Amino acid sequence: MALVLFLFLAGGCLNKEPATQAGYQPGQPIPSVEVEVDVPNPFHTYVDAYFVKSIVCDNLIQEEPRDDVLLIDSRPKRPRYDRGHIPSAVSLPDSEFEEKADQVLPDDKSVLLLFHCQDTACRLSHDSAWKAEEMGYENVVVYPEGNADWEDRGFKTWTIDDITEPDEADVAAKERAEEPSEPSDIKEGDFPGSIEEEFFKEVLATDPDSIQLIDVREEDEFEKGHIPGAVRMNVAEIREAMDDFDTSEKPIVLICATGARSGEAYFTFDDLRPELDVYYLDASISYKDDGSYEID
Question: Could you tell me the pTM of the whole model?
Answer without folding.
Answer: 0.83
